[in-house]
Amino acid sequence: MLLAIDISNTNIKFGLYNSVTMRHHWVVSTARQRTTDEYAMVLNDLARHAGHRLTDIDDIILSSVVPPLTPVFQELAVRYCNKEAIVLDHTLDLGIKLLVDNPWEIGSDRIATTLAAHHLYGGPAIIIAFSTATTFDVISTNGDFLGGAIAPGLLISAEALSSAASRLYRVDMTPPRYALGKNTIENMQSGIIFGHVGLVQGLISRLRKEIPGVTGENQVKIIAHGGLAQLMAPIIPEIQHVNQYLPLEGLRLAYTKLRG
């Protein structure tokens, strides 16, 4: 079995694959202070609940945008699974071009989702990750990474607003009935959520126009993933697909390409 691990700033996703089929998946909160042993016990309990042991794992591939945790999971792979983990980065030959100024700056999660999106939906495409940041990844017809945009995430924006303004406070991340709010809560929900909708739609419109060879809006697939995708996708009609397993699928595909 293959264990795919996607380490992001908010959550760590695990996917356990039997060939091309995901048999089990789990999500835990990212905790930078946890040790190798602590994460191993968490993963061991999850695997055991699904009827497996860590020694059942044949290979491990991971992507990480949290540098302190990368060696933690590399050590976990060696000590508890007797495997050397494959760490996804820009140096691996995955059959895609990274058409940006500095390929080493690209987060490995963006490489993984580029692979998965092109394989599952084709190109050209815009991939939107609704997470700590709201990230836009643009891929060409051939599946190459063209670049993108990074904006403050929805929760970051909400936290900044409530902490900087003494008369405002935290509100539930629920779309209000109308953009025209009639009380403070609805005012804030409208500004935070519908304001983010406007940001996303504006960037989609701009990015579409800059993809080589695109002559019509319908040519570009719009794909969303991340913890807040389920909240945002229903109120952004441009989004055509929501796939929370996109990073894990990308890791599986990367493993297949590397191992042949």
Strand content: 15-25%
CATH hierarchy class name of the largest domain: Alpha Beta
Reading the helices and strands in chain order gives EEEHEHEHEEEHHEHEH
Contiguous uncertain segments of 5+ residues? none
CATH topology term of the largest domain: Nucleotidyltransferase, domain 5
How would you name the CATH homologous superfamily of the largest domain? ATPase, nucleotide binding domain
Count of the separate structural domains: 2
How are the strands of the biggest sheet laid out side by side? 3-2-1-4-5
Largest sheet, in brief, is: 5 strands, mixed
Silhouette: globular
Radius of gyration: 19 Å
**What's the pLDDT, averaged over the residues?**
92
Alpha carbon gap, first and last residue? 16 Å
Estimated helix fraction? 25-40%
Summarize the structure.
This protein has helices spanning 36-49, 70-81, 108-121, 154-164, 184-209, 229-232, 246-259; strands at residues 2-7, 11-18, 21-29, 59-64, 86-87, 125-130, 133-139, 145-152, 221-225, 241-242. By secondary structure, the chain is of the alpha/beta class.
Explain this structure to me?
- The chain is an alpha/beta fold and 260 residues long.
- It has two domains: 2-87, Nucleotidyltransferase, domain 5, CATH 3.30.420; 103-250, Nucleotidyltransferase, domain 5 (2-Layer Sandwich), CATH 3.30.420.40.
- It has helices at residues 36-49, 70-81, 108-121, 154-164, 184-209, 229-232, 246-259; strands spanning 2-7, 11-18, 21-29, 59-64, 86-87, 125-130, 133-139, 145-152, 221-225, 241-242.
- The chain has a five-stranded mixed β-sheet, with helices on both faces.
- Helix 2 links the parallel strand 4 (59-64) and strand 5.
- Helix 3 crosses helix 7.
- The radius of gyration is 19 Å and the shape is globular.
